[in-house]
Design the sequence.
């Protein structure tokens, strides 16, 4: 068929443009100021610039007394020859080195490489799970003509938000629809960070962000060095992405959980739902999320190749956002900067890695439990990041060696068992609520007084407890050592009144479901995908893996389906 192996891209039509980096402007500038600064660097008038696009914007905070934004931008000009002549001068060469000025072609766009050019496909692919991986996989398949069926155990996002709010206000936990499960996946109740280390030459990253903007996100995510969306905007995005998928022929099935599979000769033939329905299919994407423990069990029983993987566990640590802002930006920081983020890492004397994760500026700590009798916490921010409190996970790396002594559990699922035991202890210590403790009391191994309940910003019930009774000693000691080390970078991080919540256990999947070069498991037709399968860590990387999986599934259909 002469098909490409992975992904695709096409260049926009039009003339060359100029990319210029390292333009610094004081906080509080506007678009005209940016245009004038670029023109000055190129020794032209601002009127010579016919258009520009911001490629990247970051905050320069190394010299707190002179905070600035640093830009990389793309320019189109009236007269390119004028610029080429300038760049040939001594001054032009100097500016070109300092600001990395270069002529580039207009940006390339992502192209789905395997569109289905027929309308009679009877074996529709199924996508299980509607988190970032499942949504983007379904979107590309739908746009490509494959009319996927999306099966989600939870509720549509609006009803899900109501369900979660009721739980936080003291209602019962719905094990099928909660912070972990439901339309949008676990990321829906988060800060909505979109950072990723994925380097993708096929522009899948741009495809993800373009869809997010189309569906409600701010255009700032296209160029911010630390883009985020916020849970309120995520809810809008998720709803609108569903509409896009349905517009292209995709179909959603809510409140149905895949509880079994049927196979023949190591080939998937169907999915069994919790109401007994058999959905016949030859290809299903398992974008199940990192908390789908029942699905891990089911796949293991069927002999799907999987193994335990490293992850991290610990606590949520909360501080005054004002304290964080002053540490990051100085005492007289511009208020328009909003709430400052941070990222901290440390290696303990024993060799354990301790680091902050999923930092939520101006956010809340939330009860993120998905099983009765268990407590798990996470962080969440609204787009305005205005709670006045800052929280992040302070977590310690753990691996298979740490749970090898857990008995009566298959090796591949011992990480799941490790998580569950910590969550059961948290439930017990908090008497059914989130155990909460001042850092000073954590250091002294005593529960905090009830006044702590008035100090934090959280969603869900909390109860004073001693987190030393929840986490193993090696994790407690690592957290204590790590927070003391972080205090040297952010003064006050290890203050006695810093608030800890337990247990942060769902940082990433505890298993990896193995897949081959075609993205299929050892049972053909099963496509493990996203964070739950162990191939991503966060919204953006999961979404990109969803696109990759859609490409490979579509390729498989085109190879093995007879085209009439």
Sequence:
């Amino acid at each position: 068929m002469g098909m490409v192996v992975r992904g695709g891209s096409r260049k926009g039509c039009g003339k060359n443009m100029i990319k210029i980096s390292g333009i610094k402007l004081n906080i509080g500038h506007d678009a005209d100021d940016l245009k004038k600064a670029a023109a000055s660097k190129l020794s032209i008038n601002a009127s010579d610039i016919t258009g520009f696009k911001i490629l990247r914007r970051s905050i320069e905070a190394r010299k707190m007394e002179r905070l600035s934004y640093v830009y990389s931008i793309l320019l189109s000009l009236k007269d390119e020859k004028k610029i080429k002549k300038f760049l040939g001068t001594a001054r032009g060469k100097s500016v070109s080195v300092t600001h990395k000025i270069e002529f580039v072609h207009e940006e390339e766009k992502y192209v789905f490489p395997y569109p289905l050019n027929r309308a009679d496909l009877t074996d529709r692919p199924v996508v299980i799970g509607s988190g970032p991986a499942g949504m983007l996989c379904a979107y590309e398949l739908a746009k490509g003509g494959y009319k996927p069926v999306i099966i989600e155990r939870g509720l549509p996002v609006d009803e899900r938000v109501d369900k979660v709010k009721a739980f936080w206000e003291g209602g019962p936990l719905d094990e099928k629809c909660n912070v972990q499960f439901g339309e949008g996946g676990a990321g829906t109740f988060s800060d909505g960070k979109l950072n990723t280390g994925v380097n993708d030459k096929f522009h899948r990253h741009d495809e993800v962000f373009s869809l997010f903007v189309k569906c409600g996100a701010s255009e700032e995510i296209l160029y911010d060095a630390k883009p985020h969306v916020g849970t309120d905007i995520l809810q809008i995005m998720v709803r609108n992405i569903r509409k896009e998928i349905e517009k292209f022929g995709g179909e959603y099935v809510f409140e149905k959980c895949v509880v079994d599979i049927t196979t023949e000769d190591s080939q998937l033939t169907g999915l069994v739902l919790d109401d007994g329905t058999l959905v016949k299919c030859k290809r299903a994407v398992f974008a199940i999320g990192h908390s789908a423990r029942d699905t891990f069990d089911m796949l293991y029983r069927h002999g799907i190749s999987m193994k335990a993987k490293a992850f991290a566990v610990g606590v949520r640590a909360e501080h005054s956002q004002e304290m964080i802002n002053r540490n990051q930006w100085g005492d007289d920081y511009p208020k328009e900067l909003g709430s400052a983020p941070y990222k901290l890492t440390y290696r303990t004397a024993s060799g354990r890695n301790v680091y902050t994760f999923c930092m939520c500026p101006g956010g809340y700590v939330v009860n993120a439990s998905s099983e009765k009798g268990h407590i798990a916490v996470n962080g969440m921010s609204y787009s305005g990041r205005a709670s006045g409190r800052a929280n992040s996970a302070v977590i310690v790396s753990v691996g298979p060696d740490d749970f090898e002594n857990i008995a009566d559990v298959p090796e591949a699922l011992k990480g799941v068992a490790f998580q569950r035991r910590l969550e059961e202890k948290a439930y017990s210590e908090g008497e059914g609520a989130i155990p909460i403790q001042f850092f000073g009391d954590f250091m002294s191994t005593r529960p905090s007084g009830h006044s702590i309940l008035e100090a934090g910003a959280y969603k869900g019930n909390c109860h004073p407890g001693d987190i030393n009774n929840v986490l193993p000693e090696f994790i407690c000691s690592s957290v204590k050592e790590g927070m003391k080390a972080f205090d040297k970078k952010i003064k006050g991080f290890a203050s006695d009144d810093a608030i800890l919540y337990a247990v942060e256990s769902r940082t990433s999947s505890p298993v990896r479901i193995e897949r081959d070069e075609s993205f299929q498991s050892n049972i053909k037709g099963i496509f493990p995908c996203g964070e739950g399968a162990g191939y991503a860590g966060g919204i953006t990387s999961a979404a990109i893996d969803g696109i990759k999986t859609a490409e490979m599934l579509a390729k498989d259909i085109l190879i093995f389906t007879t085209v009439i």
